[in-house]
């Protein structure tokens, strides 16, 4: 039997097994976590008729949601899972915090979001903590399809990463290790560059005033070319979770005021709100020892040196 964890973090596998063997009609429900736990846009759903509190993750809201059967394959073959959800919110807005899930799916907002399905065992209706849950299935959103009154998340499990093609020579722009690393930060000023959107920004040209780590700092021309920007959540934020690769950046002046301007590859669904939306940026990840900074790749020679 799979390991079952109670709401207080204890192992309840033995107690759950006794409950299942001794109860003619055990109460079992599914809990769905779509997104990263703790993040503001993460979706918590359950097919129970009332909200369920499972302490490690929080409260799961009742929804019209169903899934495919869990399949087991021999070896390292990956499996797929379709989750169908009929969300109550049908509104189309210019804010990622209030827009309907169908609208966000059309913007590819959910692409590659992690998905976790928990199997919940309840000795009493609504009690998800005493016996707790077991991990039933895990993976990521591959595609999201919009139906008439529902949304279908077509998911692939974690083993799908073993099926991805890896370049024969990883010392190149498509270096998979570099591409999946954390944000690459400038050496001066040290820290994650965070900006507040300034008036004049559009869907693909973002003007920002640096607020951290050095307020008002102007970064070098194309210092972030090949990197990316991610919009942050916060009070009134309208683009939280949206991101794009950066084509180029440069200084932008409006009278005596100086800002950082970014031209991005992926057009945003709508212009950011000046003074409200904020974002952080990352430099392009280093690929060999000649890159600055070369953190994480100090011993990787350039292709010319490796010949």
What does this structure look like?
8% of the residues lie in helices and 34% in strands. The protein folds into two domains: 13-163, no CATH class; 183-282. It has 307 residues and is mainly beta. It is elongated, with a radius of gyration of 23 Å.
By helix and strand content, what is the structural category?
mainly beta
Strand tally is 15
Compute the number of helices. 4
Could you name the ranges where pLDDT drops below 50 across 5 or more consecutive residues?
Answer: none
The portion of residues forming beta strands comes to 25-35%
Described by strand count, sense and barrel closure, the largest sheet is: 9 strands, mixed
Number of domains: 2
Properties at a glance:
about 300 residues; mainly beta; 15 strands
Give a quick rundown of the structure.
Strand 1 (27-34) and strand 2 form a beta hairpin. The chain contains four helices and 15 strands.
How is the topology of this model organized?
Layout: H1 13-22, E1 27-34, E2 43-46, E3 52-54, E4 58-62, E5 64-67, E6 80-86, H2 101-106, E7 114-122, E8 132-146, E9 151-157, H3 176-179, E10 194-197, E11 205-212, E12 228-231, E13 243-254, E14 257-264, E15 278-282, H4 303-306
Parallel strand pairs: 2-4
Antiparallel strand pairs: 1-2, 1-7, 3-4, 5-6, 6-9, 7-8, 8-9, 10-11, 10-15, 11-14, 12-13, 12-15, 13-14
């Amino acid at each position: 039997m799979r390991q079952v964890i109670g709401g207080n973090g204890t192992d309840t596998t033995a107690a759950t097994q006794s409950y299942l063997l001794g109860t003619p009609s055990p109460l079992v429900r599914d809990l769905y976590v779509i997104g990263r736990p703790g993040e503001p846009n993460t979706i918590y759903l359950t097919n129970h008729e009332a909200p369920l509190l499972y302490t490690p993750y929080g409260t799961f809201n009742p929804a019209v949601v169903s899934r495919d059967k869990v399949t087991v394959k021999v070896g390292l073959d990956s499996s797929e899972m379709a989750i169908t959800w009929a969300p109550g919110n049908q509104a189309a807005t210019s804010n990622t915090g209030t827009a309907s899930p169908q609208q966000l799916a059309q913007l590819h907002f959910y692409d590659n979001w992690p998905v976790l399905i928990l199997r919940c065992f309840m000795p009493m209706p609504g009690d998800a903590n005493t016996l707790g849950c077991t991990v039933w299935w895990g993976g990521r959103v591959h595609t999201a399809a919009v139906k008439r009154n529902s949304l279908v998340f077509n998911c692939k499990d974690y083993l799908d990463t073993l099926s991805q093609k890896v370049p024969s020579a990883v010392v190149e722009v498509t270096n998979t290790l570099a591409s999946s690393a954390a944000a690459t930060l400038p050496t001066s000023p040290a820290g994650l560059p965070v900006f507040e959107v300034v008036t004049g920004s559009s869907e693909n040209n973002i003007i920002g005033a640096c607020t951290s780590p050095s307020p008002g700092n102007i970064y070098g021309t194309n210092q972030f070319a090949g990197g990316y920007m991610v919009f942050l959540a916060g009070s009134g934020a309208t683009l939280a979770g949206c991101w794009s690769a950066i084509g180029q950046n440069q200084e932008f002046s409006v009278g005596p005021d100086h800002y950082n301007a970014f031209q991005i590859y992926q057009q945003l669904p709508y212009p950011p709100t000046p003074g409200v939306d904020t974002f952080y940026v990352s430099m392009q990840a280093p690929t060999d020892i000649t890159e600055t900074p070369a953190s994480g790749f100090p011993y990787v020679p350039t292709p010319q040196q490796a010949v």
